[in-house]
Amino acid sequence: MSFQDLQNGGRPSSSSISRTSPSQAVAAGIFQINTAVAGFRRLVDGLGTAKDTPDHRQKLHNSRQRILQLVKETSAKLKALSESDQAANVNPSKKVEDAKLARDFQITLQEFQKVQQLAAERESTYSPSAPSSGPSV
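RE: above sequence
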């Protein structure tokens, strides 16, 4: 956040939003994926419990699709970033920073794969419980 952002009441100005570097965009994508994977993990933990309903399974599916979309978008940004780092005049410290982002992205993908594997195991082991419609009279 810049001083100008503070003058705007804490809202980032349109000029600071447009100045987001490709590295920052990749870092933001990784953060979004990590956050989504944490939510996905909570949904997976609900499989096989009383929370496991068709609606819960739909939320799990939607979460998985959102993560896959975020991965696709972040992967494209990371690829573009990597290609821009091939230029001879790129600062070596930027190359190191971008390499770290690539490692972070890889670690995030591995975590998602682990949780996805757990989800597949639990989805095949347990069937969703029927939504309760209240006590029958």
